[in-house]
Amino acid sequence: MGHVNTIFNQLLALTPRNRFNAIVNKHDGDRYVKSFDTWSNFATMLAAQATGKDSLRDLGASLAAQMPRFYHLGVKPAPRSTLADANNRRPWEIYQELYLAILERCRALTPKHNFRFKNPLFTIDSSVIDLCLSVFPWAKFRKRKGAVKMHCRLDHSGLLPDILIVSDGKKHDVKVAPDLTNDLIPDSIVSFDRAYIDFKWLFSLTNRGVFFVTRAKKNLDYTVTGQHDVPEKTGVISDQTIKLNGYKSSKDYPNELRLVKYYDAERKKTLIFLTNNFHLAASTIAAIYKARWQIETLFKWIKQNLKIKSFMGTSKNAVLTQIWIAMIYFMLLAYIKFQSRYKYSLHTLAQVVGSTLFQRGSLVDLLNLNLNNLHKLKLDDTPQMMLPLRH
Q1: How many domains does the chain have?
Q2: Which of 22, 117, 358, 363 gives 10 a disulfide partner, CB atoms 3.0 to 4.6 angstroms apart?
């Protein structure tokens, strides 16, 4: 009876199984599969993420003792070669769609962003994952370097990556920007750094009623057409309305823009922001851009806590499979945190779940503990209450 209440069992129970099966059928994931099906592949790779395994050999050794429990989870064991073959052949799009399905369930639980305005707030950015070119020849980035790039849109309501695009390392951010913003509704606000400045794209956002906040480039050519009052003690140095002067830029963006000069006391640095929002206070424009650090924190967390820097396969499909299952694990942890109002950090939750993954105990009880009092978790064969999954 004890097998039904391992932490791993309860983690898998949060995965929408019917939706998972529908996605697998859509992509013919189990076509020609005799024993090691997509669910087994997913569960095995999810366990690798939770326990921090770096190689198929290491994963196989650590799971060998857990195989009796795997059977009870509907997961079939497989030798290393079978798992490697599954990662190479099973469409990575299956796990991308599963990630989006879990994200939708998280949305109902996420808190709103911390700003007073009600506009939806997003940040877009990218991060490079370095790869060895000799091992991953399909991921050529530079002459002697390989890489893939994660392009992300962070929803500040819940701080969840609601769009994630994985491209080759050479893909420029501006080329991906439309795919990260095409579904934004009017009055949404999106922030990004100077790498995304393309005035033709910015004007398309304005025409759709979407606001943007970014840093102005140093060589920006413009004429001041208006001045706004600057409140004292806010860090705002100037607040101007401008029009672009450059032949191409003025053609691509013929409307007026707002230029806010702000002194960041923490960094002891003067920053100049460019926006098409003329309604919010200049200090709020500066605060919106400052909130961009949250997407950088997300990338840092992902790289430190998920296994996306060392890969168990070398094909493009295997790499994308591992990245998407890593993000599914992140989303499951986020779901647990939102559902239970877990008081510790997501980093602590990942460590606690990973260190108790195959132990028998209540996930609900586990959420009241941190690493320092983990020994208080009761380990027995009594059926425990499981965290409910809202539909």
Answers
A1: 2
A2: 363
